[in-house]
Design goal:
- By secondary structure, the protein is α+β, with helices and mostly antiparallel strands.
- The chain has one domain: Alpha-Beta Plaits.
- The chain has two helices and four strands, in the order E-H-E-E-H-E.
- The chain has a four-stranded antiparallel β-sheet with strand order 2-3-1-4, with helices on one face.
- The longest helix is centred in the first third of the chain and has 12 residues.
- The termini are close together.
């Protein structure tokens, strides 16, 4: 399954690493791709992820989940 999220506050490689580490720690996540230019994070997972879990991981990394793109 592929899901894309709009994440605010990311602007450098360290931001990418923080968001990626937080999301890959979630059960079932296989891959995380961050696009700084569009502020979008695409997550590929074995199944659907609970938005609350994604929000918590992004919050814990120090960023804000602005919404689900797809």
């Amino acid at each position: 399954m592929r899901s894309t999220y709009h994440v605010l506050g990311m602007n450098c490689g360290h931001c990418v690493q923080s968001v990626t580490a937080g999301l890959t720690a979630l059960p079932g996540v296989r891959e995380v791709e961050v696009d700084l230019a569009t502020a979008q994070v695409t997550v590929r997972s074995e199944g659907a992820l609970a938005t609350a879990d994604v929000q918590r991981a992004i919050d814990d990394a120090g960023f804000d989940l602005a919404g689900v793109v797809s």
